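Ticket #4471: complex job returned nothing on first submit. Input attached below:
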Amino acid sequence: MVDYLKLLLALGWRNLWRNRRRTFVILFAIALGVWSMVTMAAFMRGIIHQVVNDAINNLTGHIQIHAPQYRDDPVIEHSMTLPSAALQELLQKNEKIIAWSARVRVPAVIASERESSGVTLVGIDPSREKTLSFLFEATKKGRYLKDVEDKGVIIGRKLAERLQTGVGKRIVLMSQDRNNEIADRGFRIVGIFDATLESTELAYVFVGRSVVQKMLGMGQDISEIGIKTRDREVVDAVTAKLRQAAPRLDIQPWNVLQPLLQARVTINNGFTIIWFVVVFVAMGFGLVNTLLMAVFERTREFGLFQALGMRPRFILGQVMCEAFFLLLIGLAIGNLLSLLTLQIYSDGIDVSGLAKGAQMIGLSNVIPLTSQLNDVVVANALVIGLGLLASFYPAWRAARYVPVEAITRT
Amino acid sequence: MEYTVVCKQLSKLYHQGDVTIAALNKVDLQIQKGGFVCLSGPSGSGKTTLLNMIGGLDHPTSGEIHVDGKRVDQMSKADMAEMRLRQLGFVFQAYNLIPVLSAHENVEFVMQLQGMDKKTRADKARAILKEVGLEGMERRRPAELSGGQQQRVAVARAMVSGPSLILADEPTANLDSVTAEMLLQMMRRLNDVHGTTFLISTHDKLVMSYAKRLIGLHDGEIVDDERRN
Ligand SMILES: Nc1ncnc2c1ncn2[C@@H]1O[C@H](COP(=O)(O)OP(=O)(O)OP(=O)(O)O)[C@@H](O)[C@H]1O
Ligand SMILES: [Mg+2]
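Support reply: We reran it on our side without changes. The output follows.
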């Protein structure tokens, strides 16, 4: 039996190279298909990875803690007191949490001498915020804030342009205070930040937390606690733990805080699957067609096999072996190409040529290629599994030839 | 008397439109074990049809076929395949060999299908290729052999596993007379030495001259049956 299998494999392998050109064409098609599946999946994952990471870096974090009503109506009344000692200890000691910080976050109006604009005023603890969000690395001009008492302000580049202002100039921030009065205060711009998205640059204004608390008369109260975990996988576990420790607070993971983001993850995954199917169908037709041609050309030979006493199912097996080799070699080349592509673009693909369009859907200029073993395995399994299934038809045709007709055909 | 082939009232009808062609018409035939029988007749007389029926490559319309005492016409496809594998050897006019296999592998092929072990198989293949005069050409693929050499490989393959009957359909049709004569001498020798029964169809006078028995076929009927010794 092993001997028989060896024979079938040998026949399949040698027949593969009888029409080299045709074999190379179909190998190229399979390789291209696999390559496009793997890199496309990596590209889609990259987009999602980036969009999610951007959102997480842009103040969302992996988890946020709020007072119960805050998310429905993010006003100053819905702020909360500093976390309890127990919660603080948990935040500090849990090794899955790599950074956390308390913020004040209120709607405000910023005004320069020439223009004004609606923004979100964020009071931060600069030292804790450093590892939590994008701000420290994004502050390209001027300086970062020193501490919670820092009386300077950092605004986005685009906002600075719109307000026609810059580092060293003064602006005024206005917001509602604890007593529903308009509070305002002048600040000097100490830094300008660059964000991946212009919308971020327009939306946020950062000052020292204590300065805002004093300005709005809110004592030690805060709006939120942002938390960054080791990675996205542990978010649910950490959320559960925190909820246990502080049952009366609203503690939510990123995908609840940003439901649209979650939807995009789902849609992207769906798109990847559709892509897989489309590529496979095209490839499958090519494969079946190639094998049918090969089988048709060898009609006489299959008749001969039968005349010699080879059972039809072994003739079927022989064609299947041929298909198997085709798929295997195609896959190997495709995976190699994918690996190469991922290597070459390990720093991401620069899409700045399309950046205007990309920005509109919330993308930055460089898309990292994020390959998951999972995707590669699925692509390979799909091609080999369904490929063999599709090859069954030509193989069956080969086995079905009636010997006398096959032999008399010339 | 032992018969390798017995046909009784064997008919094969082909329908083409309204016309019915009797490729074989109630043929009665008995071939002794160890015979070297030549089947001659003009084109379309039914030679190929008769060989295919006996070889189980096709089903008769009516009548009986016995090979080695077994009813071929009532066999299942699988049994027919098994019979072809164990009891029969085929030699066709051309394209006898599997192009991707070497001469040696072509000869080994049938034994491989039979499940014979590697060593025995290789020894037998080497011996029979030597017997048909192809020593030193074992590694060549069919495309690298002349027409006559290819036919010899085909005969070697048909012979190698010791079948009781070899069916050869115009085996010399594509060969020049010198090569054809060599092939025939070889087949006669194999017939003499191993006692294998040969049934050979031909229009070739040369082939007929080698026959121990000459059967003439015309329009699907046996019109002549001459035994010589
Ligand atoms: N598949 C078929 N369909 C219809 N008619 C057929 C078929 N095969 C053979 N015939 C007819 O049967 C008759 C016998 O054909 P056969 O091939 O047996 O002749 P032959 O003696 O081998 O001829 P040749 O010397 O040319 O090989 C012919 O009239 C042929 O036309
Ligand atoms: Mg014929």
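The two ends of chain A are 33 Å apart (CA to CA). Closing as resolved unless it happens again.
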